[in-house]
């Protein structure tokens, strides 16, 4: 029987894993500058954590969640996104307490799961990097999160980006707009897709997010939420735009953008790339916004929040298409060539000693002849080789060779164990 990975998943092989690690390292470096600290939450949560926060009419809840009942008859869900689990942990661990610095800034990295049709950059097990900031309602924090997203993408070499911006306003704004949208859509109800018909009266904003081509034609003429904002919501959005202007971060207003999760309010945004990875069409790489009220939904006190999520697979596709290589192939410091059975144990000890001194070291495990071992050293781009056989053992010496210059020197075995850096300096001085 031939076993294959489940549909919608991918094997990340060693060469690819280096690029993944490089992206994650860049993210950690950028997040540290903004003072965001890492949190790690379970890959599965109670079903209610996501059904309550993501919205009962969202595609995630109605179509895409991997949920099941465990042996204790608990309704469990593999996490489809990162924010709700972070909020649950924030509430459960009382990170809103007076002793915790405000705003509380955190980031996460890890796999998420959605049952959807696999396609390029969209898998059933995918990975997100995201940030969340709790405890401040300031538009300046919205802009910090946006600037952080841009800084992260710039740090990995992406510069042809577009920031799309909108607001969903406060509760009063949304209620006013909700009714206006229903009034607009009801005459078109017969023309709407099945999903949009179901959402029309439950959550009409979801219709704006429909991928159905005919739905998109209809909503193109829909009223704009920007015409239904309260004075407070208008002030918040105006300040966001002013702060972005002050930071010289260009943006475009997209009044039909609503995001795919129901917990958003006020500022929402998407950062897009026109990379050839997706045919030069503007494709979302990173998205997020403000979600005041989400903490209360999961049993916490009134706490504003804002954040974003970035799809790692999609980002890596873009980096590959743009020939951006973040991971660097590290040369091997030392390859130990062992000749004969008696040198076998000694070569193992030498390799271990070199690693403990901070050098990368390798040896043969396939019983290759010396010629084959030197070929392996060349293939691994070894800077130096150390050769030891019966003669060297008898003399308690090893042959040290600089593979770049072919300079060689006999060096005391004890010095290799105590200070390889000093031993190789003999060759370095010879070359100079």
In short:
This protein has 432 residues and is α+β, with helices and mostly antiparallel strands.
Structure in words:
The protein has 432 residues and is of the alpha+beta class. The protein is built from 17 helices and 16 strands. It has two domains: 249 residues, 2-Layer Sandwich (BirA Bifunctional Protein, domain 2); 94 residues, Rossmann fold (3-Layer(aba) Sandwich). 40% of the residues lie in helices and 21% in strands. The chain has an eight-stranded mixed beta sheet. It has a five-stranded mixed beta sheet with strand order 13-12-14-15-16, with helices on both faces. α1 packs antiparallel against α5 and α5 runs parallel beside α10. It is elongated, with a radius of gyration of 29 Å. 37% of the residues are buried. The model has no long low-confidence stretch (mean pLDDT 92). It is found in: Cytoplasm. One of its GO terms (molecular function) is ATP binding. This is Histidine--tRNA ligase.
Main sheet properties: 8 strands, mixed
Could you tell me how far the N terminus lies from the C terminus, measured between alpha carbons in angstroms? 61 Å
Total strands: the figure is 16
How many helices does DSSP assign? 17
For the record, the CATH architecture of the largest domain stands as 2-Layer Sandwich
- For this structure, the CATH topology of the largest domain is BirA Bifunctional Protein, domain 2
Q: What is the CATH top level name of the largest domain?
A: Alpha Beta
Strand order of the largest sheet: 1-5-6-11-10-9-7-8
Count of the separate structural domains: 2
CATH H-level homologous superfamily name of the largest domain: Bira Bifunctional Protein, Domain 2
- What is the overall silhouette? elongated
Alpha-beta content class: alpha+beta
Binned, the helix content reads 25-40%
Low-pLDDT runs of 5+ residues are: none
Round the Cα radius of gyration to an integer and report it. 29 Å
What do the pLDDT scores average to?
92
Q: Beta-sheet strand percentage?
A: 15-25%
